[in-house]
Amino acid sequence: MANKGKSKRAGQFPSNKQSSSEMRQTDQLTKPKQSLAPNQITQPAKPRIQPEKMSLLAHDHIQAYMSEQWRTQEKRPKDKLTDAEATSIFQLGQHLRVFGLLSAVGFVSQSNQQGGDTSKQRGKVWKTLLGSLLSDAPSIRTEELKEDADFDAAKMMTKVKGLAEQQKTQSEYMAMWQKALKLSKHWSFWAKAYQEEKKIQDEQRKDV
Fold first, then answer.
1. Is the pLDDT score of 20 beyond 90?
2. How far apart are CA 167 and CA 64, in angstroms?
């Protein structure tokens, strides 16, 4: 009788013994993960814009400005940038870092209405470079920024303002701003490369 009572009580509680398969599963869960060797770690490659590609893109933008038709009409050097033009490119990078992309495009829009040769000169430089930048925006087509094959400041302002204000495109605006900041360094580099040498300018003044 005592044995029967004991077996009943034992049956009321789960057994502490585990089967061999259960033990193997427990070992797999509790076993610490072994770190892979550096050559064994495989991570999906993320697409990156290499500095070389960014530099070439900036070079194309500078070349697009230098080939502007109005520069030829004003007898600007075809293969060189004047000091004023190069300075305007340097100032664009500073403005983008401090005030942002929307402010830079806003300056271009206002420079057409304001007087002063310096403001208009800077506006012409900024308009071409920023227009070339915005042409790569996913939600903007190049023809939407131009009027008679020339970048239009008012249209550029409308597009950039729309990107910045609409919630669904705010991330695209921020991405374009970040790209502009990276490009501005390369714009400045190529501006220095194509800037007229002061010695040559001084000699030309003496000849006159």
1. no
2. 32
